[in-house]
Amino acid sequence: MEAHVPASAQTAPAHPGVVVTSRWQVADRHAQRATADSAMARWRHLPWPEGCLSVTCLLSTDGHLVMFYSRWESEQDYRLHAGNVGERDTADRVAAHGSGVTHLDAVVSSLATPPGSLSGDAPHPGCVALISIATDGPELQQQAAERIATFRADAHPGAIGGHLLFSLDGTRLTLYAEWTSEEAHREAIAGSSFGGERGIFDGVPGIRGLSMHRYQRYRTAGR
């Protein structure tokens, strides 16, 4: 699918450390909440991994995804943690034997733009839109980011801010966009200013929209 891009972003030098976005598919809202609660309890009570700065759990508004957004001092710290988990555990501390819970992906990225809001007095986000874009290499990651920067959402009253993530392997760009509500985001992307029905990457060689999901922040743990 072609992903609509609903938030402004300006490319900037990469920041140190990495961000890992990891998605789990569940059957329904009950399983979504149970999976999130169990994992975040384990984050609170098990020894904290070396180099992990924070872990935020987000729940998709359709009730079928649990996402973990974790910040690490280095890729090596994350890889060491992921390699040390037991066979009945996972890097996200979701029980690997959980019935009906499927791990979809884990993307290790650099922070390509600094997190920020569109105003100095930003409200708490009622919706977080995660837009994944496939790119055929690092040069096209940068090209995609520059194209995103031409489609500005700061004129929309529901836009709060966001940032871009470049996967370390050059195959993915992720836009993390904060909005006041799910309704505000739906209204914004319905407009033609964000590329219309086909999205802003329609016909661009080597760049393809993968997915767009809306989330709400659920819980955060930190060292």
Describe the protein:
- The chain is 21% helix and 36% strand.
- It is an alpha+beta fold and 223 residues long.
- It folds into two domains: 17-108, Alpha-Beta Plaits; 110-216, Alpha-Beta Plaits (2-Layer Sandwich).
- An eight-stranded antiparallel barrel has the order 1-3-2-8-5-7-6-4, surrounded by four helices.
- The longest helix is centred in the N-terminal third of the chain and has 17 residues, at 29-45.
- It starts with 14 loop residues before the first strand and ends with a strand.
CATH class of the largest domain: Alpha Beta
**Overall pLDDT level:** 85
Number of domains: 2
User: What's the CATH topology name of the largest domain?
Assistant: Alpha-Beta Plaits
Specify the number of helices: 4
- Structural class, judged by helices and strands? alpha+beta
Spatial strand order of the main sheet: 1-3-2-8-5-7-6-4
Q: How many strands, what sense, and barrel or not for the largest sheet? A: 8 strands, antiparallel, barrel
What fraction of residues sit in β-strands? 35-45%
Tally of strands: 8
- Series of secondary-structure elements, N-terminal to C-terminal: EHEEHEEHEEHE
Radius of gyration: 17 Å
InterPro entries: Dimeric_a/b-barrel
Task: Based on the model shown, name its key terms.
Alpha-Beta Plaits; alpha+beta; 2 domains; 223 residues; disordered N terminus
Short description:
InterPro entries: Dimeric_a/b-barrel. The protein has helices at residues 29-45, 75-84, 138-149, 182-189; strands at 15-25, 52-60, 65-72, 102-111, 127-135, 159-167, 172-179, 207-222. With 223 residues, the protein is an alpha+beta fold.
